Every structure is written in C-alpha cells, then in structure tokens.
Structure prediction request, 554 residues.
Amino acid sequence: MVNYSNADRMRRGISTLMTTLTGLCTLLAVGALLIILFYIAYRGLGAINLQFLIDRPRPVGEGGGIGNAILGSLLLLLISSAFGLPLGICVGIYLSEIGRGRFGGVVRFIVDTLTGIPSIVTGVFVYALVVLPMRHFSAMAGGVALALIMIPIVARTTEEMLKLVPHSMREGALALGAPQWRVILGVVVPAAAPGIATGAMLAIARVSGETAPLLFTAFGSRFFPESLNQPIASLTVQIYNYAISPYDEWHAQAWAATLVLMTLVLGINIIVRFLTRKKF
Amino acid sequence: MPVEIAAPKLEVRTSASPPETNGKAKVAVRDLDFFYGRVQALHSISLEIPERIVMAFIGPSGCGKSTFLRTLNRMNDVIPGTRVGGRVLIDDHDIYAPGTDVVELRRRVGMVFQKSNPFPKSIFDNVAYGLRINRLTNSNSELAGRVEQALKDAALWNEVKDRLKTSALSLSGGQQQRLCIARALAIRPEVLLMDEPASALDPIATSKIEELIFDLKKQYTIVIVTHNMQQAARVSDTTAFFLLGKLIEVNSTEKMFTAPNEKLTEDYITGRFG
Prediction:
C-alpha cells in the first residue's frame, strides 16, 4: 500500500480538476457549433430541392430559388480571392522575408489594425471610393470590399507560416548560389504552402459570411448576373433580406440558403486542402 | 585546473607558421575582423588555404571557427547587424570588394551545414536544385547524369537509386547529410566548406562522410570545422586552432597533434581546457 503525501494528493486533485475544466470548455465550444450546424440543417433541409438551387427569386407564393445568389456569391469570392489572396500573400512574404527593421514594423502594425476594422466601415469606404465615382453598385465593388477584408488576414497567416520554415533551409538554398527571390519562391513558400493555404481558407470562410460590406457595394439583385459591372446577388444579402421579411416561405428559404452557404464554404475548404496537401 | 587565458598572450599570433603548401593558395585571408553588432567575434585573422587539401578548424565552442568559415562564402551577410573588416581573397580576387557577385561566389564556394537541411522536395529535385537555378545543364539527360554523378560522389547513389522520386525527408539522418553533400557537389564548387558535417551522426555515418572527404580532396579544396579532434587528425592535411576569436596556430595536422608550436594549442589538444 502506497502512502500518498498531501502534496501528491493536491497535485492529483488539481490535475483532475484542470483536465475536467478544459474538457468542459471544449465540449461547450464544439457543442455550440454542432447545435448551430444541426439546427440549420434541420430548418434548412426542408426547403431545398433542385428548383430552389437553380431558380432565381420569385414573388411570395411562387417558389423561386437562390440560384442567382449562389452564382453571385461564387463570383464575389472569385473576384475577392483574385485580388486579396495574391496581395495578402505578397505582403506576408514581404513581412517575413524582406521587410525587417522599422518600415516592416510599421507595415505589420497597419496590417494588424486593418484586421480589426469593422467590415461595415470597409463597405462604406469602398462605397465612397468605387461606387460613387462609378455611379452604380457593382459586383466589382463588392469583390474589392471583400478583398480588403481578406488582405490583412492572409498577410499575417502567411507571415507566421513562412517564419516557421527553418532558417537553415534558406541558408542551404543561398549556399547553392540561389538568388533571394528564387529561395523565397522555390523553397520557402512551397515549404509553407499548406499553412498558407489554411490562411487563405480562413480568409475565404471569413468573407463568405460577410453581409455588411456587400450592402453598399454589390447591393443585391433578383436576377442572374450578366456583368461584373452591375449589382449582383449574394447568399448573405439574400439571407438577410429574406430573414427580415414577414413571410414564412421566405424564412424557410433563408434557412435553406444558410445551409447552402455553409456547404459551399465546407466544399471550398475540402478542395483547397486537397490541392495543397503535403506532397513531401 | 582551467588554464588562465591571459589576453596579452593571445596577441602573439606571429608564430602561426604558414603550412607547407602543395600548391598555390586557393583562399588567402588577410587581417580579417568580424563583428556581430558591437561584439567582435574574429580578431585580425590571416590564413592561407592551399588548393586541393583538407584544412580542419578546431577550437572550443564559441571560438569563432564557424563564423570564420561562413565569412569565406559571405554566408554571414544574411545575418543582420554583422560587419567585416580585412580581406578574403579567393584566386587573388577580394570577395568583399564592392561589386562582387555574391550569388556567383556561393556557386564557387559550396557549403555543407551542421544540421542537414534538405528541401521538402524529392531526392532528385534536391540534388538538381543548384543545377537548375544556375542553368548548368542543357538537357534533361545531362541533368540526370550530373545528379547521378553527385549522388555517387557522395556515396549515396546505391541507397537511393530506386527511389529518386520519393521525399528527401524520408531518408535517415546520415543519408540526409550525404544528400546535402551531394547537393553541394552537384554544382561542382571549387571550395567546399563543411560546418561540423558529422556532429549529429552515428559512428558509421560519420566514417562514411570521412571517407568521402578523403576522396573529395582530389578535386576540391575542403575546409571542415570540427569539434572532434580525432576527426580532424583523421581527415585533414592542415589544422588551424582558434581560441576566443583569434587564430592561435596553423600547422600541418601531423605536427599539430604531435608537437604544436604553441602552448595554448598543446593545452587544448591534450584536453586541459575547452
């Protein structure tokens, strides 16, 4: 029979307590997420059918769908990714590989500040900068607003991921007579690619849920997009419009659209992870 | 009893006799000073490294031997806040002169690091990296030939020839280090700098690398930093002893380990300090 001292008992007690606490916190966070997911699926599945996925909105009582909003959201994500991802990744590369010293610090501070700007402010900013001079809402303006939200997120995650690449790898490439840009593009960035992709994913997931910046920029539309120079529908704005309407049919469609949006984000996530999986 | 290292004694640097050369000096260092910020890491080092020999740098940790090695291909340039004084001549050309092409210099002066650092690419692509970025080959078959030769020179070919497309990270530690040597050899540098290349390896892998160094000196000028004095004695022709950022003695390895000129060298080699 072993005799445990008081200190031993104390230690075991605290260990059990802390393990239980962290477990409970995890359960709470994951539980809340699961409840949200299941509730959305429960409320949304009923209204989903093929017609709903490919049709455009119709007046109350005539059914209609969110096909134009799905297409619009995808286009907006495409535009914002086309601007936001390369720019953000370049800023991240600059911060990690080139911008040491004071200027790099200033850039890092600005990027951090940008991350914290409320998205509606970004929307108003793009309204003043793009929408007013053009005199109309457009998909382009919406994409620019979303891109501005993406850039700081992508920049900081890219920087962190590049900093995880061991310094010895850079020296190895330099010692073989590689100029700095080839070291960065050929060795450092590929080594950090899965992490950079995760950062890009986070940014895409984040902006795909944005509504506020789109209200003053992409505006929304009841028709299928014909040009990027016109207002365009998006799932989030559609959900917002339907959710605040007084009709039960549109409420059901809002739930269904939410389910579609979540599935979309999940789908993009899986595709990006597959494309950037660790090859070596 | 630790030996009292009196500063004035270290000023006596003049008796560092030039090694018996079997060719002209490939690398000639003149009064080299090196600073990390305000800290002076190397004090007025002068040294000649003849062509096609193996020179070993020995000395206790922090004595500056790795720093000195890295000045020879300007690898210290990438560390912020460092400063160099004096001259390093390779083939009579000062590599610290303004206008020196550092990329071209590193192509001629290859380096193998203490910790193996393969790229997260395939075995083949690792060795081909230097050839590709420097456009040293004209065709894919020539590239494949150079890669094969480099892997053979590094005594790794037989172990990897059937899996050139697999990840370099799947190799064992000793194999990874030989891969890094193959990678450095592939671009056929004139001088090969090795910074404790065997310090993380088991005795079998170490002996393979030592045999390799012995073979390589037929073609290359090799400078090797080592903590292991038996290793220095086994592989090198000439040995340089560093202490506290100063070069204490350069001598033929045989003389160094039997009858060194300096008392400090003798104390270090016989294990009285360090």
